[in-house]
């Protein structure tokens, strides 16, 4: 069976609605609901008082109707009494502002009071429900991702550094602290990368993200180890996005089943975006089945803040996309929307059951697909973090968007792999804009090619080592080229910023990919046509393999000026610049794509 269901928040409704809910769930083929994600203030109304009566009733009701439960620990939202009793456990922003209760995810994972309170409620839930017959899965917390810079975090960061590097001299070396007089005399001098006068040290910021990821992992592991003895699998739901300081490839080793939430940023291309996430989740899961823990029912809440309904039939296509990528569960946020609260307008399943129920009924009779692919794409969240460093040759590189474009160009089936995954057995490996390449990965990529594989690298690959230190020419010998210079491509020249957070100075478009440019009429900077500037981004006539010349304006956000040494140039720009080269290395082949081509399809195939 492929499980079907969603987040269920019965505490937001009176008990007579629960009975209506389970009747509807039965008719809609719901087999699993996630309960309790944000229920802490109901489960523990005061520090010394617990109330499980309502949850007893809900779990019994679900079980009586044959519906399984994914039971969450509620630690993503500590209740108001906790905040009042432990104001020092509230997170502090990089600017030094201590946040207060009023939303969710407001805690410091390094605060001992928060850790104790989290473990206490997890223990209570485990003892009470660990043997409940409805229980199928434990769901620890929700979408880990809060970063804190407080005085609990500072010493914890120093301990992490000491554990990682052993002595401060090594920190100085890998952080290149001789730049701007940042050399540290001892660990006690190190602070979190709080607000400072000008640019922060990128290696410092990178290590703080790694530390934050490990600190949250410690919080997760404490709960997992409380819940595991009950014999039911334990997981947490991964949230994707540039702001998330979680190294999911590392975390994937600690969950019993990989679970991800997926919220595409626009209706346009949403199926391709979902296919990428499915392949990514399967990569984290080492090829095993994984769960789609949340997506929005029959809608996309776009990056521009508008919630758009999917065209008829596309809710099913969305579900099928996850299933084709190996999902063992297709779940939504949420079953029934609350009457109030910050997400009262978020789409919910109940009003859409005529469309969704047939999906659930069909999934109930199926088993997870086993995906076999001979082609892989490398996606590295830490490289994504590195692409957020200040003062890069251009700020316009959106690593995830570029990687997704290559994924789409490759066509299914593709395994999206973290950098540590084995590459043996793949005939083609594509690693777009892989900014940060540790020495061990350099070695593995070389062996992969030497042994007969085809590797595609692009501009922006191998710029730095894992400490953000530049590694000029790191791939030159492998690619048979010399990278002479990095320069921003045409997007930079036009002043169009391609990231979600960017602002276009020329036309005032805030989001180059999904926004609408009133002035220039450009809807999608990558695929559209700019009437005013006359810059064309789309070159259908040049798409075929073997095209010898590219048109101008084709460098996207980046162009590497390269001198081919032993490599063959297979694509030139009209200015005669080499854009794509190929080089035999050992028994294999390395293709280098020097510019941010809007359609890399011809170069994404073996
Ligand atoms: C996340 C959360 C949910 C809800 C949805 C809304 O995925 O886990 O609680 O906030 O987003 O899209
Ligand atoms: Zn903190």
Automatic annotation (TrEMBL):
Region (Disordered): 530-550
Gene Ontology CC terms, in alphabetical order: beta-galactosidase complex
UniProt key word Nuclease: no
Domain Beta-galactosidase trimerisation: residue ranges: 376-487
Residues the record lists as binding Zn(2+): 108, 148, 150, 153
Family annotation (Gene3D superfamilies): 3.40.50.880, Glycosidases (3.20.20.80)
GO molecular function: beta-galactosidase activity; metal ion binding
Keyword terms of this UniProt record: Glycosidase, Hydrolase, Metal-binding, Zinc
Residues where substrate binds: 104, 142
Gene Ontology BP, a term: carbohydrate metabolic process
PANTHER family reported for this sequence: BETA-GALACTOSIDASE GANA (PTHR36447)
The protein's name: beta-galactosidase
Organism of derivation: Paractinoplanes brasiliensis
Record lineage: Bacteria, Bacillati, Actinomycetota, Actinomycetes, Micromonosporales
């Amino acid at each position: 069976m492929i499980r079907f269901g969603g987040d269920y928040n019965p505490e937001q409704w009176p008990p007579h609605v629960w009975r209506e809910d389970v009747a509807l769930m039965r008719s809609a083929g719901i087999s699993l609901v996630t309960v309790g994600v944000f229920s802490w203030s109901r489960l523990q109304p005061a520090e010394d008082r617990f109330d499980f009566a309502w949850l007893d009733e809900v779990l019994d009701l679900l079980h009586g109707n044959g519906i399984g439960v994914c039971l969450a620990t509620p630690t993503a939202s500590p209740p108001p009494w906790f905040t009042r009793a432990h104001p020092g456990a509230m997170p502090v922003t990089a600017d030094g502002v201590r946040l207060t209760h009023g939303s969710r995810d407001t805690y410091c994972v390094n605060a001992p009071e928060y850790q104790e309170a989290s473990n206490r409620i997890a223990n209570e839930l485990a003892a009470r429900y660990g043997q409940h017959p409805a229980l199928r899965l434990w769901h620890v917390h929700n979408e880990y991702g809060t970063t804190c810079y407080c005085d609990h975090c500072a010493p914890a960061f120093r301990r992490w550094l000491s554990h990682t590097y052993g002595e401060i001299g090594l920190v100085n070396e890998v952080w290149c602290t001789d730049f701007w007089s940042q050399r540290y005399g001892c660990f006690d001098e190190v602070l979190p990368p709080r607000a400072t006068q000008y640019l922060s040290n990128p290696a410092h910021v990178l290590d703080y993200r790694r530390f934050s990821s490990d600190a949250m992992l410690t919080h997760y592991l404490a709960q997992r180890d409380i819940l595991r003895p009950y014999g039911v699998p334990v997981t947490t739901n991964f949230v994707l996005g540039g702001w998330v300081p979680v190294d999911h490839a590392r975390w994937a080793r600690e969950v019993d089943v990989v679970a991800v939430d997926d919220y595409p940023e626009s209706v346009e291309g949403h199926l391709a975006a979902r296919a990428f996430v499915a392949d990514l989740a399967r990569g984290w899961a080492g090829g095993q089945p994984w769960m789609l823990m949340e997506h929005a029912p029959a809608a996309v809440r776009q990056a521009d803040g508008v919630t758009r309904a999917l065209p008829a039939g596309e809710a099913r296509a969305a579900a099928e996309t996850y299933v084709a990528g190996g999902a063992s569960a297709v779940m939504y946020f949420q079953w029934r929307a609350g009457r109030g609260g910050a997400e009262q307008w978020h789409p919910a399943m109940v009003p859409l059951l005529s469309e969704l129920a047939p999906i659930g009924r069909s999934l109930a009779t199926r088993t997870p697909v086993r995906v076999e692919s001979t082609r892989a794409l490398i996606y590295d969240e830490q490289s994504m973090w590195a692409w957020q460093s200040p003062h890069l040759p251009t700020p316009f590189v959106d690593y995830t968007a570029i990687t997704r474009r290559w994924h789409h160009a490759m066509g299914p089936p593709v395994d999206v792999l973290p950098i540590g995954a084995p590459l043996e057995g793949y005939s083609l490996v594509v690693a777009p804009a892989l900014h940060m390449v540790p020495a061990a990965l350099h070695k593995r990529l070389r062996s992969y090619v030497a042994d007969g594989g085809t590797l595609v690298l692009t501009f922006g690959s191998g710029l730095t080592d894992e400490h953000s230190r530049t590694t000029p020419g790191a791939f030159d010998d492998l690619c048979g080229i010399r990278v002479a210079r990095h320069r921003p491509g045409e997007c930079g020249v036009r002043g169009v910023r391609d990231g979600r957070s960017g602002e276009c100075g020329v036309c005032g478009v805030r989001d180059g990919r999904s926004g609408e440019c009133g002035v220039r009429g450009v809807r999608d900077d990558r695929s559209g046509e700019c009437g005013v500037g006359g810059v064309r981004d789309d070159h259908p006539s040049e798409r075929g393999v073997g095209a010898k010349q590219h048109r101008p304006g084709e460098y996207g956000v980046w162009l590497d000026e390269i001198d081919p040494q032993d490599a063959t140039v297979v694509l030139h720009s009209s200015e005669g610049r080499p854009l794509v080269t190929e080089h035999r290395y050992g028994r294999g082949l390395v293709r280098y794509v020097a510019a941010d081509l809007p359609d890399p399809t011809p170069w994404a195939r073996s």
